[in-house]
Predict the structure.
Amino acid sequence: MKHPKLAAVTAALAALVTAAGCTSDGGGGGSTPAAGASATGPTTAVGPAAVLTAAAQRVDQQTYRLSLGDGAGGDGTTLVWDPKGRRGLETTTLAVANGKVVIERLATGTDVYVKVTAPDRRVPVWDGRTWWHVGTAEAAAAKRTGLDNTRLASTLGAATEVRATGERAYAGTLDLRNSTDVLGGGAGGVLGDRAAAVPFTATVDPQGRLVRYRIELSGEPGKTSALDLTYADFGLPVSASKPAAGLIGEDPPSNIPGA
């Protein structure tokens, strides 16, 4: 596996495509505060790790757009997400021999639907038209085996040895041994024994929100394998409604991601 294909399920899907012919400092104790310090008490310095934990939490306070790549300029995912309403649209594009496969995952807040578009129609259910109902939001989350892109920022809670590398820029390592529910089996398989100390870099905007986050997955010199995330467009409108009845398919077959 060259890289994690963004999710374990997409690796399986690629195989199916091939088979089908598609593929501050602390304040002093003096009686007079220093110039610029708070008159109400000492200021508490905030360490880099705490900055990143707070930045990751702020991501979930507004709607946003997430762009996710594999670090090699190949496959990619875009997610438009409302974290409070638990609704949005995730679109993953996979390069195959004769074009691309597009997987769209629509979460309406109560239910999840998946649509797959393939370069040809050798797999009829990948028709680019049918929204397959993969269950309630809770059931779909329980069945999901790949990356949970809506929760990737939360892995910064496992950051260690964090250091500042520039203005609002940081680096360190992540202990991802307990993050398989977020990363899925695909990334876990790539990390192996290195999951306890995975290098990362991150950038925070002036409002303290996470805007760039890169998790370095590859342990081989000269090879690029990463989860490269960009968060943007905070506060954008997100609309995610149930598809028209005539476009919904129930009882999705096993080659539909999340079925």
About this structure: Residues 53 and 157 are 5 Å apart (CA to CA). Confidence is low (pLDDT under 50) at residues 1-44. Residues 8-21+48-249 form a domain with the outer membrane lipoprotein receptor (LolB), chain A fold (CATH 2.50.20.20).
